[in-house]
Amino acid sequence: MNIGVLALQGDFEEHRICLRRLGVDAREVRLPSELNELNGLIIPGGESTTIGKLATDYCLVEPILDFAKSGVVWGTCGGLVLMAKDVGMSQPTLGLIDMTVERNAFGRQVDSFEENLEIENLHGGPFRGVFIRAPRVIRVGPGVQILCKLEDGSIVAVRQGRFLATSFHPELTNDSRLHEYFLEMISKTDQPSGTPQH
Ligand code: GLN
After folding, report:
1. Nearest to 74 by CA among 138, 150, 157, 198
2. Is 132 in the pocket of ligand 1 (CB under 6 A)?
3. Which of 74, 104, 106, 171 to mutate to test the pocket of ligand 1 (most atoms within 8 A of CB)?
4. For residue 23, what are the contacts with CB-CB under 8 A and spacing of at least 6?
5. Which of 8-12, 89-93, 96-100, 163-167 has the lowest mean pLDDT?
6. Catalytic residue among 18, 77, 148, 179
7. Residue 162, Cβ neighbours under 10 Å: how many?
8. Which residues does residue 6 pair with via DSSP β-bridges, in sequence order?
């Protein structure tokens, strides 16, 4: 299984460390050619305007959209912003998930917080969500599955087919369950339809 982590800015290395714990040596992606033969791509947290600008400057937007026609993509925090169709302001995004996102929805850096989350289909107890100037999802289109909401109703994890997005930073915890979930999405996607899955 070939996994890439977009490595333009933000905490791409932390995702690679998490994946290494699961026995996966993920590739840093900075060039279009580094998307070749990938099965899955992670867009890490960071500053979504910066990552979007660098992706445009490095001519990565079209190649990532091409990759997304068959590949699995997961955006975390700033990466969730980049996954959105609509962020309510003009900034380049990939528009892979039919959702509207509110950036910095919980306040500034000093308002960062952690919360135990119940995530759909994630077994084994609550997941510790680390929120750092996090976005939240304020609208989802049909076909977008809500995987997690905070107590105040804020949507913080969604999935649309092969695309996953989380407002928080699983790579900053020692809990690998969401990275495992992402790898599972890939192994299911790779199966030809009709093949039994294990
Ligand atoms: N506030 C950042 C943004 O909207 C995201 C912050 C993060 O990834 N921790 O781009």
Report:
1. 157
2. yes
3. 104
4. none
5. 89-93
6. 77
7. 18
8. 29
Using CA atoms, how far apart are residues 4 and 73, in angstroms rounded to an integer? 10
pLDDT band, residue 197 (cuts 50/70/90): very low
Q: Which superfamily is assigned to 3-188 in CATH? A: Class I glutamine amidotransferase (GATase) domain (3.40.50.880)
3-class SS at 153?
coil
Q: Please confirm, yes or no, whether 148 is among the known catalytic residues.
A: no
pTM beyond 0.90: yes
Residue bearing the CA closest to ligand 1, atom 5:
78
Distance between CA 176 and CA 196 in Å, rounded?
Answer: 25
Tell me which amino acid residue 112 is: S
**How far is the C-alpha of 94 from the C-alpha of 134, rounded, in Å?**
18
Q: Mean of the per-residue pLDDT values for the chain?
A: 94
Which pLDDT value is given to residue 190?
60
**Ligand 1 pocket check for 47: Cβ under 6 Å:** yes
Is the C-beta atom of 104 inside 6 A of ligand 1?
yes
Distance set, CA 188 to CA 33, 48, 107, 108, 198 (Å): 25, 29, 37, 38, 9
> Which atom of ligand 1 has the smallest separation from the CA of 51?
10
